[in-house]
Amino acid sequence: MRPTDRDVDHALAYPEPPASPLWHRQSAKARPRPLTDAQREHNRELLDLAWRRPRSTAA
After folding, report:
1. For the whole model, what pTM was predicted?
2. Could you report the per-residue pLDDT of 4-30, keeping only the tens digit for each?
3. CA dist., res. 48 & res. 40, Å (int)
């Protein structure tokens, strides 16, 4: 069987467009800020509660 023009996927004939500049991080501005001591302590307390709480069984 001979391929015809109808069998060709024309979407693949063109190069992919460049990625959006919004997908790329912008230098140091996009870096997460370090946690404060209060935030760290709060996270520790939540983790401690989660570790101590018994697991609930799925219904």
Report:
1. 0.41
2. 556 666 666 677 778 787 776 666 566
3. 12
pLDDT digits (tens, 9 = 90+) for 1-10: 555 556 666 6
Angle at 48 between CA 44 and CA 52, to 5 degrees: 175
Could you tell me the two tokens for 18?
Answer: 């460049």
CA distances from 22 to 26, 30, 35 (A): 9, 12, 26
pLDDT band at 58 (very low <50, low <70, confident <90, very high): low
List of residues 6+ apart from 43 with CB closer than 8 A: 35
Q: Rounded to whole angstroms, how far apart are CA atoms 29 and 31?
A: 6
